Amino acid sequence: MYAKQYEITLPADYDMGIIRERVATRGHALDDRAGMALKAYVIRERGVNGSPVNQYAPFYLWNDTAAMSEFLVGGGGFEGIVRDFGRPVVRHWAGIACEAGPARGAVPRAASRRLTQLPAEGLTEAVAAEAEALRELAAGHDAVHTAALAVDPHHWQLLRFVLWQESVPLDDDCTERYEVLHLSAPEL
């Protein structure tokens, strides 16, 4: 599994209805994408759930890195983002774990992301503890659709991304909260 996300931060007065319409009319295009586990079309809207920005920030889990590369640079779909918004920085993480939650059969409406710095010492133990916490979260919270854990070995950051059935719980220790506009999950 490989995770990636790009964040397109938009002006403070940007009409987020434009992004909602974009996803409503184009989101289905990846519903059958070979090699992709999921794409969560997520946004943050300024002033909603504490967001300081308007942002379109799709999140992907890929089962096949060749399919991911073809999507990014081989004319497989990313050119539409580049054409409409310029070429964003694409963050990427090597997958550690992906857990199904009790709400897997529902359509997720919210997502959370948590980025944490990994310690220089005790790395193995820290990652193992986070993987166990992810399993517990997925199994123990009725509203979890999917929970993923991945590592960025360039910046030594750990990513936890969770899709939620309706909303991100207020006590979740995430760093970002998103609204999910659509979920393509051809190989989840």
Your description of this structure?
With 188 residues, the chain is an alpha+beta fold. It has 4 helices and 10 strands, in the order E-E-H-E-E-E-H-H-E-E-H-E-E-E. Strands 1-5-3-10-7-9-8-6 form an 8-stranded antiparallel barrel. The chain is globular and about 45 Å long. It starts with a strand and ends with a strand. InterPro entries: DUF4865.
Output the number of helix runs.
4
Mean pLDDT: 96
- Largest sheet, described in full? 8 strands, antiparallel, barrel
Tell me the β content.
Answer: 35-45%
Unreliable segments of 5+ consecutive residues:
none
- Structural class of the secondary structure composition? alpha+beta
Order of helices and strands: EEHEEEHHEEHEEE
Strand order of the largest sheet: 1-5-3-10-7-9-8-6
Helical amount: 10-25%
User: What sort of overall outline do the alpha carbons produce when their principal axes are compared?
Assistant: globular
SSE blueprint:
Layout: E1 2-6, E2 8-10, H1 17-26, E3 36-44, E4 54-56, E5 59-62, H2 65-73, H3 79-85, E6 90-100, E7 110-117, H4 123-140, E8 144-152, E9 157-164, E10 176-184
Antiparallel strand pairs: 1-5, 1-6, 2-4, 3-4, 3-5, 3-10, 6-8, 7-9, 7-10, 8-9
Descriptors:
10 strands; single chain; 188 residues; alpha+beta
Concise overview:
The chain is α+β, with helices and mostly antiparallel strands and 188 residues long. The protein has helices at 17-26, 65-73, 79-85, 123-140, and strands at 2-6, 8-10, 36-44, 54-56, 59-62, 90-100, 110-117, 144-152, 157-164, 176-184. It contains four helices and ten strands, in the order ββαβββααββαβββ.
